[in-house]
Amino acid sequence: MKASEIRKLSAEELDAKLLELKDELFKLRFQQAINQLDNPMRINAVKKDIARIKTIQRDVELHGVNS
């Protein structure tokens, strides 16, 4: 997910997406622990998406407007 796509989402949608990604990361880590993970690079992608969402949430918090 690109940052420009994330910026188009509302605050509620960002929160929902963040929870969804955290849940997916938990499931991926669990699969990795029991050696059933198909694509290990997906963990990095999900972590980066979580970081992007948190960064944009913080930007909105500081500046008050989606830029």
Descriptive report:
- With 67 residues, the protein is an all-alpha fold.
- It has one domain: Orthogonal Bundle (Helix Hairpins), CATH 1.10.287.
- Helix content is 76%, strand content 0%.
- The chain contains 3 helices and no strands.
- It has helices at residues 3-7, 11-33, 41-63.
- Helix 2 (11-33) packs antiparallel against helix 3 (41-63).
- The longest helix has 23 residues, at 11-33.
- The two termini are 17 Å apart.
Q: What are the main properties of this structure?
A:
67 residues, single chain, Helix Hairpins, elongated
Summarize the entry for a quick read:
The protein is an all-alpha fold and 67 residues long.
Approximately how much helix is present in the residues? Answer: over 70%
Order of helices and strands: HHH
CATH C-level class is Mainly Alpha
Number of domains: 1
Unreliable spans are none
General shape: elongated
Structural class: mainly alpha
User: Do you know the CATH topology?
Assistant: Helix Hairpins
CATH architecture: Orthogonal Bundle
Query: Compute the gyration radius: what is it?
Result: 14 Å
Q: What is the first-to-last residue Cα distance?
A: 17 Å
Measured by DSSP, the beta-strand proportion falls in: under 5%
Please give the count of helices: 3
Rounded mean pLDDT is 92
Major sheet:
none
Let me know the number of strands: 0
